[in-house]
Amino acid sequence: MRMKTKLYNFLSFLLLVTFSSYGQMEQYDYKRTLSGISDEWHSVELPNPIFSKVSKNLTDIRIFGITKNRDTIEAPYILTNSNSKFNNAKITFKSINDSHNSKGYFYTFEITSANEINQLNLDFDTDNFDWKLKLEASQNLKEWFTITDNYRVVSIKNDVVNYQFTKLTFKNSKYKYYRLLVKSNKNPKLKIAHLNFNTLVKGKFRDYTITNISQAINKGNKQTIIEIELDSIVPINLLKINITSNTDFYRSFKLMSLSNRFKTEKGWKENYRSVTNGVLNSVDSNEISFNTINSKKLKLVVNNFDNKPLAFSSFDCKGPIYKLTARFDDSDASYFLTYGNNSAHKPSYDITRFMDKIPTNASTIKLGDEIIIEKIAPAKIDALFMNKIWLWAVMLIIIVLLTWFSLKMMRNK
After folding, report:
1. Closest Cα to residue 130, out of 165, 102, 106, 159?
2. Total count of domains within the chain
3. What contacts 384, CB < 8 A, 6 or more positions away?
4. Among 201, 235, 264, which residue terminates a domain?
5. Number of CB atoms found within 10 A of residue 131's CB
6. Residue 153's closest CA among 192, 181, 191?
7. What does the alpha-carbon distance between residue 309 and residue 329 come to, in Å, rounded to a whole number?
8. DSSP letter (8 states) at residue 355
9. CA 125 distance to own-chain centroid
10. 236 and 278 together in one domain
């Protein structure tokens, strides 16, 4: 029994030495030092160069610390971004008058509570229209004040385009009655209206440098194809398209992002994945918002149909700022931000269940330059077992130990 214990301890020691050479940080490709840690909570912004090295869903980010006793600890964190946030409150009202005259069709609404409004969403049982609207307000149904006039709403529906813009946005207003005039000589058939009060918590965005823009006209498909290339892979969720045109236009588009490149006998080929689609038009600002993607190159395909191609003057790419807020339990430890492991799962920390206890104003700490994490230990192990002499020696030791242990068991019997 004593000999069995010694053998077990010896083998356990060998395994311990082998696997201890693989630290937690060695599972990742890159690290950056975190300096300036003085409190329990700190925050750090992720710089642009990181996004070309992390996984698509940012699941491989870790904060590891090395204590004075050379133990490895992990600092829990939450990841947030600086996107704008909308709070939408629906306002209760009732419709009290519908009428029309030579000016158009009137709809009057009575607010049933003392609330402000700044948006009116309309749904018409009519397709293909281009109307001007006037919105007025009153406290007594006698004296009316203009909120907005000549506000344009549009609907286009055919085999290739299905677009509608029927949302009125205006400054905060607080009246008991509102009167909407649709300047049309035909019944617009208003089905329903929604009165809302929207508050915007404006986010912070990074403007990305565009390094190259190429534009081509495909006459056969009647399309304009624009490729927009950035200087690195970054998180993008907004593309502002500036168009120079003196006439009205409505063009459907498709926005795509580069997914991969591969080389063929005829040169490099590129694959793209769809991001979003919609309509460019002369009514609104042509700011395309979409779910955040990590990309270096975008492709915009605009359908011209039988119209003259649009003149694009410039493009603006923007994206949110990502921030880590972490808890540092040992301020004396040396901490590193590590990343670069596509097989890493999203971490699960207790602090995500106590979000109200995480400070929103945690002080910012400094992030050092990127350091490649050397994979020294695995290389040594591979070299050891690739050597035939060492391999035969290990096998011989194992055979001798097993033979001796077997003989010992037989003698005891």
Report:
1. 165
2. 4
3. 390
4. 201
5. 21
6. 181
7. 60
8. G
9. 36
10. yes
Q: Is 284 within 8 Å of 168 (Cβ atoms)?
A: no
Distance from chain centroid for Cα 243: 26
Closest C-alpha to 120, from 131, 105, 136: 136
Residue written as token pair 């301890």: 9
Q: 82 Cβ partners below 8 Å, 6+ apart? A: 203, 204, 205, 320, 321, 322, 323
Given a contact cutoff of 8 angstroms between Cβ atoms, the answer to whether 94 and 337 are in contact is no
Its pTM stands at: 0.73
Amino acid, single-letter form, for residue 36: G
Q: Which DSSP string corresponds to 9-63?
A: HHHHHHHHHHHHTS-SGGGSSEEEEEE---SSEEEEEPPGGGGGTS-TTSTT-EE
CA geometry: angle 89, 95, 100, nearest 5 deg: 130
188-247 pLDDT tens trace: 999 999 999 999 888 899 999 999 999 999 999 999 999 999 999 999 999 999 999 889
Strands (E) across 26-185 are located at 30-35, 41-45, 62-66, 72-74, 77-81, 85-91, 93-101, 104-111, 117-124, 129-138, 145-157, 162-165, 167-173, 177-183
Q: Which domain holds residue 343?
A: 2-82+322-374
Residues in contact with 150: Cβ distance below 8 Å, sequence separation at least 6, in sequence order:
132, 133, 134
pLDDT, one tens digit per residue, over 24-77 is 888 999 999 999 999 999 999 999 999 999 998 899 999 999 999 999 999 999
Residue 267 falls in which region: left (phi positive, over 0), alpha (psi -120 to 50) or beta: left
Among 132, 166, 201, give the residue marking a domain's end: 201
Chain-centroid distance of CA 385 in Å reads: 45
Task: Give burial (CB, 10 Å; 0-12/13-18/19+) of 187.
Answer: middle
251: number of Cβ within 10 Å: 21
Same domain, 242 and 313: yes
* pLDDT digit string, tens, across residues 298-314: 999 999 999 999 999 99
Q: How far is CA 268 from CA 198, 272, 333, in A?
A: 48, 13, 48
Nearest C-alpha neighbor of 224 from the set 259, 261, 260, 249: 249
Half-sphere exposure (CA, 13 Å, Cβ side) for 193?
A: 25
Residue 22's pLDDT is what? 38
**Residue 347 carries which DSSP code?**
P
